[in-house]
């Protein structure tokens, strides 16, 4: 009997261990596969795609349209109303003893004004069954609330997983399972003249599909410089009609595969006038995977500079450079990957990992696909001779480390805390953020001293550390003015702060 009990106990322990192991592995695998697509597995929205007979003659867009529309979402954002004021302590009114503190206010300009609530909308693309959505950074930048509506009319609240102003990509997450999603295509295989469809929610309309062709590749139009000092631009140019509200939506091929994220239009009026631009999906995939895994993009750098503007004929002759030959190296960064590999000013880069590059945007597109530490081959021309070297790409800091995600408060550096209410009242302010020490971050680049109390950003009152974070995020990439006081000293002080600095 005792032997039988021991056998039962061993069987129970073995079964429990097996169940726990399977459960633990499934949890680990689910975390590792978050937001990822599985090769060869299609979502339910593609169920009828291959049932349609192959087209003979005119191209049929119906299967691609039917498959894609369930996976393209409507994004509605809201930025809450906020009060903008100097919020600084006033000097004492000389007439207050006779007529009261309010005397004289009628002669002063208003101390504050209200910026009303702002609402906007755009598009997004579901890229996984567990609710990850890719869109443009400019669609959600500065938003307090983000609502997602599917083509089925179901609505969800979204959270921001991460964003990258340089490429104008952002990743959102909604809670749920079994969402339809778009399968990634290969933007390298896209050809000029190829039919494509733009899917999104333009002009606050319901989901809309328009058709056009690829009219150019690797276009750089300078639009991302509005939100980043290190823009990434290598757009697919199409003549599919794209209007305000299409931003963040899908550009698909006739197989229903995602080949780009619609991002911009070229127009003198702000509405469609013939050309639209999409971020190639091969860049999108890299950005999305980094943002989900690290919270920030792991961007690799060659460490070279090249002419942004077109060179004149005289400059080309002087440099010995022929148009379309490659990318002219106008400078190399000390300590950069190119310098370590022996690349010099005046060299002409012709290939990255065997892929031909003839323009700066084409070269940036290729390098963008890699992360710091990745090894690539670089082919270049020097003295009319072609050479190939291997090099290890570096990050902006000149090393191979993983770049960690930082909040805007982290970038400020120093030690900051919300000031206590009693202390705030004693300083005759409603609240603020005490800078106990300036530290070595962005604050150290101002003339601010320790024990400064920040009470407004660009005239917007900040009473807590969280309010400071929100105010700075609205001014992300720009120069803002921090205003406040030094307790025990008269007057107010203002410090300009460049949020775009590293």
Summarize the structure.
By secondary structure, the chain is α+β, with helices and mostly antiparallel strands. It has helices spanning 2-32, 62-68, 96-99, 137-140, 281-294, 313-319, 337-340, 360-368, 408-412, 421-426, 465-474; strands spanning 72-79, 82-85, 112-115, 118-126, 132-135, 145-149, 155-157, 159-164, 169-173, 195-200, 208-219, 235-238, 250-253, 258-266, 275-280, 304-305, 327-328, 331-332, 348-352, 355-356, 375-382, 385-392, 415-418, 433-437, 452-457, 460-461, 479-485, 493-498.
Explain what this protein looks like in three dimensions.
With 502 residues, the protein is α+β, with helices and mostly antiparallel strands. Helices cover 20% and strands 29% of the residues. It has eleven helices and 28 strands. The strands form six sheets. The protein has a seven-stranded antiparallel sheet with strand order 7-6-1-4-5-9-8. A six-stranded antiparallel beta barrel has the order 10-11-12-15-14-13. It is globular, with a radius of gyration of 28 Å.
What topology emerges from the helices and strands here?
Layout: H1 2-32, H2 62-68, E1 72-79, E2 82-85, H3 96-99, E3 112-115, E4 118-126, E5 132-135, H4 137-140, E6 145-149, E7 155-157, E8 159-164, E9 169-173, E10 195-200, E11 208-219, E12 235-238, E13 250-253, E14 258-266, E15 275-280, H5 281-294, E16 304-305, H6 313-319, E17 327-328, E18 331-332, H7 337-340, E19 348-352, E20 355-356, H8 360-368, E21 375-382, E22 385-392, H9 408-412, E23 415-418, H10 421-426, E24 433-437, E25 452-457, E26 460-461, H11 465-474, E27 479-485, E28 493-498
Antiparallel strand pairs: 1-4, 1-6, 2-3, 4-5, 5-9, 6-7, 8-9, 10-11, 10-13, 11-12, 12-15, 13-14, 14-15, 16-18, 17-19, 19-20, 19-21, 21-22, 23-24, 24-25, 25-26, 25-27, 27-28
């Amino acid at each position: 009997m005792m032997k039988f009990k021991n056998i039962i106990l061993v069987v129970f322990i073995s079964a429990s261990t097996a169940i726990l192991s399977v459960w633990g592995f499934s949890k680990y695998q689910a975390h590792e596969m978050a937001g990822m697509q599985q090769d060869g597995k299609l979502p339910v929205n593609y169920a009828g795609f291959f049932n349609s007979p192959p087209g003979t003659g005119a191209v049929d867009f119906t299967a691609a349209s039917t498959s894609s529309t369930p996976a393209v979402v409507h994004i509605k954002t809201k930025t809450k109303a906020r009060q903008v004021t100097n919020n600084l302590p006033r000097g004492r009114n000389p007439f207050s003893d006779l007529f009261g503190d309010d005397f004289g206010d009628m002669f002063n300009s208003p101390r504050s004004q209200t910026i009303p609530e702002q609402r906007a909308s755009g598009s997004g693309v579901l890229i996984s069954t567990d609710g990850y959505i890719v869109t443009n950074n400019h669609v959600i930048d500065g938003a307090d609330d983000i609502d997602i509506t599917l083509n089925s009319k179901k609505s969800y609240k979204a959270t921001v997983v991460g964003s990258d102003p340089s490429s104008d990509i952002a990743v959102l997450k909604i809670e749920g399972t079994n969402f339809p999603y778009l399968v990634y295509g290969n933007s390298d295989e896209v050809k000029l003249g190829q039919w494509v469809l733009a899917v999104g929610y333009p002009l606050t309309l319901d989901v809309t599909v328009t058709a056009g062709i690829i009219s150019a590749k690797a276009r750089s139009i300078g639009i991302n410089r509005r939100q980043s000092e290190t823009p990434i631009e290598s757009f697919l140019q199409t003549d599919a009609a794209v209007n305000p509200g299409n931003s963040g939506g899908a550009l698909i091929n006739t197989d229903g595969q995602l080949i780009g994220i619609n991002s911009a239009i070229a127009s003198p009026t702000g509405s469609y006038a013939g050309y639209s631009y999409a971020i190639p999906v091969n860049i999108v995939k890299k950005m999305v995977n980094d943002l989900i895994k690290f919270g920030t993009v792991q961007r690799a750098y060659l460490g070279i500079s090249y002419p942004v503007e077109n060179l004149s004929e005289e400059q080309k002759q002087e440099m010995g450079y022929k148009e379309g030959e490659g990318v002219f190296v106008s400078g190399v960064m000390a300590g950069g990957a190119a310098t370590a590999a022996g690349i010099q000013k005046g060299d002409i880069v012709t290939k990255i990992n065997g892929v031909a590059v003839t323009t700066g945007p084409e070269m940036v597109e290729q390098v963008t696909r890699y992360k710091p530490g990745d090894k690539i081959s670089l082919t270049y021309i020097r003295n009319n001779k072609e050479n190939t070297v291997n090099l290890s790409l570096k990050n902006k800091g000149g090393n191979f480390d993983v770049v960690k995600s930082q909040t805007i408060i982290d970038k400020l550096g120093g030690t900051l805390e919300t000031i206590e209410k009693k202390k705030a009242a004693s300083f005759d302010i409603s609240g603020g953020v005490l800078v106990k020490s300036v530290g070595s971050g962005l604050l150290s680049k101002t003339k601010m001293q320790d024990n400064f109390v920040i009470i407004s950003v660009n005239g917007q009152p900040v009473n807590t550390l969280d309010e400071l974070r929100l105010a700075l995020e609205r001014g992300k990439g720009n120069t803002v003015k921090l205003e406040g006081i030094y307790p025990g000293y008269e007057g107010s002080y203002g410090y300009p702060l460049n949020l775009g600095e590293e």
